[in-house]
Design goal:
Helix content: 10-25%
Number of helices: 15
Radius of gyration: 27 Å
Structural class: alpha/beta
Strand content: 25-35%
Largest sheet: 8 strands, mixed
Strand order of the largest sheet: 1-3-6-5-4-7-8-2
Mean pLDDT: 94
């Protein structure tokens, strides 16, 4: 049966000749969202999405005529399932002394900083797959297991993040005799100034570091910033250093998408786009660069929200097969789990990854958990269909907009639905693209951040302004150009002044949300509204001081006197205003009239 209007795009693209016809006639899907989002769609629907074929009947007929001439039986057969490689206990001969590998390691360690064992072991065969290595770290009655990885030329590394001061010991376990049974000890000293350890969930819906320091995620997105080369990466870091952002969403794999059609500087596996990849041999240089960037973010106090899989791919990394997927996860998690500033995101838009079923995500979560002894945060980001964020292994919800206009407005409902922190990691982007998700005004970007914050969640920023050099922040990094970051910095300051674990939703009027800490701190946000006055009905017996916050002009104006019970406040009749009520005994001194 020839290909035709009812044929599924993903099936057609498996046939090299048919794929060439698609790319010749349907140029609008090349490196575009539609190629990913329409993989399961019939060609009739695909051509209807594209302006080049929707209104041009002749072009449409020519496409289907040429496609019908392709031999459907020449489609690329399904790739044979790869079999897992089991490392042999005889990888090294019996004459190799047990524990004889050269070991390099520091004598002491610092709490919350990466401690590393460097072992020079066998280089024959394929050390990425033929050698298994782990180390058991003991402190008192506690035992934590960290897994090793091959870093090229026979060098194996085991990384660990000591979380307690005092004496630790370790012992290696390996199928390679020279790497097996190596023991040692070290003393862990106190954390350095500014080191707080990994971020954990706190008080059900919020976050704090392992040492108890509160963490308020104020994030941004720069998916492919580590794939652009050193000069652009350093520009990105300089921009982040001057920004309010303390979390960056970023991909392990390179990305092919609108305004990101260039080849990456390096590739994650040995091989090439033309000759294919050896998924059994990661390229250590690629991952060294990635971890270098993660460490640089950590030095700036920024969390690296590491995206392990994504669908925007022309190299085959999104469809390596289950065995290769698990091997890759073991490798990258073993390399990065000892960095204190890592979060794991199993996927960006998991539901667009047409080659992976539900079981893949459960298996992947189990692999991450097994090979990360430090229990970093773990989430799954969606495009259309939410992942089940109520599952035990999901630490926080990482959600995308559900509507062109409304997303942050659902934050309080999502908190109640999943009982987890809500991070709106994609609410749209400030910019001027022709895509509806990428042309928010800066005012709307800021409004969404405030709306989500007052409802008890955390909204991630993004920026997509067109540029002659095709360097857009949301993908490649570079320089921030928008007006929202300064206002988000102002919001971050307001959030940091909130007592307790963070903002929780409070009883609200029908037209505006209120959040804060009951009886101590109430933050009401009016968004688009521009009232000239507002009446508040508070519980009697608590006096409040009132402040009018202009979230766009970044001013805080304290109103004279104190207020109790039912009272009416004068407001400036401007949009993007908030009112903050602070219990009189909690109000900072000295008072100021504006800030």
């Amino acid at each position: 049966m020839p290909y035709g209007p009812a044929s599924i795009l993903g099936d057609v693209l498996r046939n090299k000749r048919a794929e060439a016809v698609v790319r010749k006639h349907l140029t609008g899907i090349v490196n575009a969202p539609l190629e990913i989002q329409l993989r399961y769609a019939p060609l009739e629907r695909v051509v209807g999405f594209l302006e080049e074929t929707r209104a041009d009947t002749a072009a449409r007929d020519a496409f289907f005529a040429e496609l019908a001439a392709v031999d459907e039986t020449a489609a690329e057969p399904p790739r044979p399932a790869e079999r897992a490689i089991t490392p042999s206990p005889e990888h090294e001969s019996a004459d190799v002394p047990v524990g004889s590998a050269k070991l390099l390691r520091p004598e002491t360690a610092t709490r919350w900083r990466t401690f590393e064992l460097e072992l020079h072991g066998p280089a024959h065969g394929n050390p990425f797959t033929d050698v298994e290595l782990r180390a058991e770290f003991r402190h008192g009655d506690r035992v934590l297991t960290a897994y090793g990885f091959h870093d090229g030329e026979g060098v194996q590394r085991v990384r660990f993040l000591p979380d307690e001061e005092g004496d630790w010991s370790y012992r290696t376990v390996s199928n390679a005799r020279s790497l097996d049974g190596i023991t040692g000890s070290f003393t862990c000293g106190p954390a350095a100034a500014g080191d707080h350890g990994p971020v954990r969930v706190h008080a059900t819906h919020h976050f704090r570091h392992a040492d108890g320091t509160r963490h308020l995620p104020v994030g941004t997105t720069a998916y492919a910033w580590t794939h652009q080369g050193d000069e652009l990466a350093e520009r990105t870091l300089r921009s982040l250093a001057g920004s309010p952002f303390n979390k960056v969403r970023m991909c392990v794999f390179p990305k092919a998408y609108l305004h990101n059609t260039n080849e990456p500087v390096r590739y994650p596996f040995q091989g090439s786009p033309d000759d294919g990849w050896d998924f059994t041999r990661p390229d250590p240089a690629y991952f060294r660069d990635l971890e270098h960037r993660v460490a640089q973010l950590g030095a700036l106090g920024i969390q690296a929200d590491v995206i392990l899989f994504h669908p925007y791919d022309r190299w085959g990394f999104s469809d390596m097969g289950p065995v290769a997927d698990e091997r890759y996860l073991r490798y990258v998690v073993s390399r990065l789990s000892a960095f204190p500033n890592v979060w794991w995101s199993l996927a960006n838009e998991y539901d667009l990854m047409w080659s992976k079923d539900t079981g893949h995500w459960h298996r992947s979560a189990a692999t991450v958990r097994r090979f990360d002894p430090h229990g970093h945060l773990l989430g799954v980001h969606n495009c259309f269909e939410f992942w089940d964020n109520g599952l035990d292994w999901v630490t926080h919800s990482s959600v995308q907009r559900v509507d062109v206009y409304r997303t942050a407005e659902n934050t309080d409902a999502w908190r109640a639905r999943w009982g987890k922190p809500v991070v709106v990691d994609e609410c749209g982007y400030e910019g001027d693209l022709d895509q509806g998700w990428g042309n928010l005004t800066p005012q709307e970007m800021v409004r969404r951040c405030w709306e989500g914050a007052v409802r008890g969640g955390y909204v991630t920023h993004g920026e997509t302004y067109l540029a002659d050099d095709d360097v857009l922040w949301w993908s490649k990094g570079g320089e921030l150009k928008g007006e929202s970051p300064a206002r988000i910095a102002f919001l971050r300051r307001i959030l940091e002044e909130t007592p307790g674990a963070g903002i929780d939703p409070l009883p609200s009027d029908w037209d505006v949300p209120t959040g804060g800490v009951e009886g101590r701190y109430h933050l009401t946000y009016f968004g688009f509204g521009q009232p000239r006055r507002r009446t508040f009905a508070m519980a009697p017996g608590i006096r409040y001081e009132a402040e009018v916050i202009d979230t766009w002009n970044m001013t805080v104006t304290r109103l004279p006197g104190t207020y109790e019970g039912v009272f009416t406040l004068p407001l400036p009749a401007l949009p993007y205003i908030a009112v903050r009520l602070r219990a009189y005994e909690d109000t900072p001194a000295p008072a100021t009239t504006a800030d």
